[in-house]
TrEMBL record:
<protein>
    <submittedName>
        <fullName>SRR racemase</fullName>
    </submittedName>
</protein>
<dbReference type="InterPro" id="IPR036052">
    <property type="entry name" value="TrpB-like_PALP_sf"/>
</dbReference>
<dbReference type="GO" id="GO:0018114">
    <property type="term" value="F:threonine racemase activity"/>
</dbReference>
<dbReference type="GO" id="GO:0003941">
    <property type="term" value="F:L-serine ammonia-lyase activity"/>
</dbReference>
<dbReference type="Pfam" id="PF00291">
    <property type="entry name" value="PALP"/>
</dbReference>
<dbReference type="GO" id="GO:0030378">
    <property type="term" value="F:serine racemase activity"/>
</dbReference>
<feature type="domain" description="Tryptophan synthase beta chain-like PALP">
    <location>
        <begin position="1"/>
        <end position="169"/>
    </location>
</feature>
<dbReference type="GO" id="GO:0030170">
    <property type="term" value="F:pyridoxal phosphate binding"/>
</dbReference>
<keyword id="KW-0663">Pyridoxal phosphate</keyword>
<dbReference type="GO" id="GO:0070179">
    <property type="term" value="P:D-serine biosynthetic process"/>
</dbReference>
<dbReference type="GO" id="GO:0005524">
    <property type="term" value="F:ATP binding"/>
</dbReference>
<dbReference type="InterPro" id="IPR001926">
    <property type="entry name" value="TrpB-like_PALP"/>
</dbReference>
<dbReference type="GO" id="GO:0000287">
    <property type="term" value="F:magnesium ion binding"/>
</dbReference>
<comment type="similarity">
    <text>Belongs to the serine/threonine dehydratase family.</text>
</comment>
Length: 170
């Protein structure tokens, strides 16, 4: 019984909001911007005395997401490339670290909406380049920009970034 407070953009699909509540967490709505999420999370921590566990910039979370790659390599040992969706970068960072440590020959590709292409722009420019405005994409789970913890991992270990149109996502 540890209480969990999950900060979620007001625009998140109702099915996701319902699932958060079904797991017993308290849903705390915010505006759909990185700044609003950060400010709301800081307020929740201050009000509750809780601990912030960032969904994509927390090293332990990133490491945990790397176990996806372990399962993939175990179940499909002949794999020669993986394509991973990227929002904040936690999942692809964890997967890239694990794959490149165990199978450096396997290509790791990030995939993101063309309307939310901060990872692509960052790789192209060689520096962290966050989205300046909330992205307009139906792919709500990848609207968050990559961050300072995930960027160096992505820069060094992700082979390329693929962008897709809204039509291709549909």
């Amino acid at each position: 019984g540890i209480p969990a407070y999950v900060v979620v953009p007001r625009t998140a699909p109702h099915c996701k909001q319902d699932a958060i509540r079904a797991y017993g967490a308290t849903l705390v709505p915010c505006e759909p911007t990185d700044q609003s999420r950060a400010e709301t999370a800081a307020r929740v921590v201050q009000e509750t005395g809780g601990v912030m566990v960032h969904p994509n910039q927390e090293p332990a979370v990133i490491a945990g997401q790397g176990t996806i790659a372990l399962e993939l390599l175990e179940q499909a040992p002949e794999v020669n490339a993986v394509v991973v969706p990227v929002g904040g970068g936690g999942m692809i960072a964890g997967i890239a670290v694990a794959i490149k440590a165990l199978r450096p020959d396997v290509k790791v590709f990030a995939a993101e909406p063309r309307n939310a292409d901060d990872c692509y722009q960052s790789k192209l420019r060689g520096e962290l380049t966050p989205n300046l405005h909330p992205p307009d994409t139906i792919a709500d789970a990848v609207k968050t920009s990559i961050g300072p913890i995930t960027w160096p991992i992505i820069r060094d270990l992700v082979d390329d970034v693929l962008t897709v149109s809204e039509e291709e996502i549909k």
